[in-house]
């Protein structure tokens, strides 16, 4: 871990039901945010704040992270982790609620990057929300793109709904000429796409 606030957020995440991103995934998130000079980012799934710290470190100095989660305890921990990492109260907007209820209230075309790190089964729905939220040329990133079973396909295998959802998102992104997808084999797998 890079430092104490990040290490604390990581440790808290390991003790929670919202596992933190590992250092390689965090580094990739920081790089992606920096590569597009992200000023406005939406994170679906706050957890205990480790991914938010990585994103904030890659964003422009005046950038604002909007992060959504249903768990108030996680968000309070993340708020504290952001402050300990040196990010003032104005740098992160934490919204408690179900993402599919909160996202429709956010500004169309107002964001540079959307990170999806929540209920994998809902990834196709989050892709549609990201399309609406992102400015032209914005980036959507899905964590957990290697979700699902490692068993080979076969007539007796029951498909894992998480795997089915990830495959659907990958299929949609590949089918669109305008999107530029990239799979990164770090952590649980990152799937990024410029839309």
UniProtKB/TrEMBL annotation:
- Please list the GO biological process terms of this entry: methylation
* Gene Ontology terms for molecular function: methyltransferase activity
* Keyword Transferase recorded: yes
| Keywords of this entry | Methyltransferase, S-adenosyl-L-methionine, Transferase
Instruction: Tell me which Pfam families the record gives.
Output: Methyltransf_3
| Top-level EC class | transferase
Write the Enzyme Commission number(s) for this entry: 2.1.1.-
Q: Which domain of life is it from?
A: Bacteria
Name used for this protein in its record: Class I SAM-dependent methyltransferase
This protein's species is: Nocardiopsis tropica
